[in-house]
Design goal:
0% strand; elongated
Length: 62
């Protein structure tokens, strides 16, 4: 099982990538970069939801 700190780090990386692509997209007014930022944000939210479901599962093998 992956540790909690690793999962938080992966989620933080997704959100940092999202933020950096959003800033770069707004700076260059490039909609493809803004779309990539949106996809990273969605991936981060989905990863966080999956992480919450796995960590709080009472039937989880440890």
């Amino acid at each position: 099982m992956i540790s909690y700190k690793t999962l938080i780090s992966i989620t933080a990386i997704f959100f940092l990538l999202s933020l950096s692509f959003a800033v770069l997209g707004f700076y260059t007014t490039d909609y493809s970069l803004m779309t990539i930022a949106l996809l990273f944000a969605i991936a981060g939210l989905l990863f966080k939801a999956e992480m919450k479901g796995r960590l709080h599962n009472p039937f989880n093998e440890k």
